[in-house]
Amino acid sequence: MAIASTTSAQWNGPPRSIRLRSDDEAHVWRILLDQETAVRRALFETLSPDEIRRAARYHFSKDSDNFIVSRGALRQILGKYLRIDPCRISFVTNDFGKPMLSPTLNNGSYRFSVSRSRNIALCAIACRREVGVDIELVDKQLNGQEIADQYFSGSEATHINASHPDRRYTEFSHIWTHKEAFIKATGKGLSYPLDTFCVASSGEKTVRVVGCEDDSVTMPWSLTTLHPGRDHAASLAVAGSRCSLRLWQWKPDLS
Known about the structure:
Distance between the termini: 41 Å
Number of strands: 10
Number of helices: 8
Shape: globular
Strand order of the largest sheet: 1-8-9-7
Largest sheet: 4 strands, mixed
Oligomer: single chain
Helix content: 25-40%
């Protein structure tokens, strides 16, 4: 796995016509979930009956609103690539619950991944390459070392413990989001043991895989640290050793 990093200033407004230039490119969209009522209503109208039911299950209205914006924005984004109305987007899931575009829409060419935390969501898009994205709210009250000791590989836990105290939580956040993005990309989610692969060293460009016989891990993967905003950590995982990246800032389309 190759590891790279972006900066917080790289999120740009997209061109009028958006497309992936090649199979060796991935796009990540940053979605700000705090939107005006008119935007939320317009996005709500594009949701499926199942998504509407899911939005209604949230206890707090803010959580429901964030779900509506993230799903509606996802539909708008995918609609741009597929050149179809967002209302026509339909999804299926694999055996582990990972959402995918219905094969009837694009014959499985486009792959996507979505993650949200508090007021920001990220949507990653790739073509014929598995992709996963993860965003987490930075909570320095969280005992990262305890989590690493319990769930990470031994070398990752050691790496965090050996880090300077001022950087220890940052190192934990990078490793945590790298691992979450990777297991999302594989399509297996939390059924994938987090201690069977290692993304621990910020000084190395390769990621060691430990104690795992899964072929999906031994193939080349690219990991990128993303900077979506203050108080958030995020990462992107894309299958393949070479992948150029473009970052877009989503804007509501009410036309």
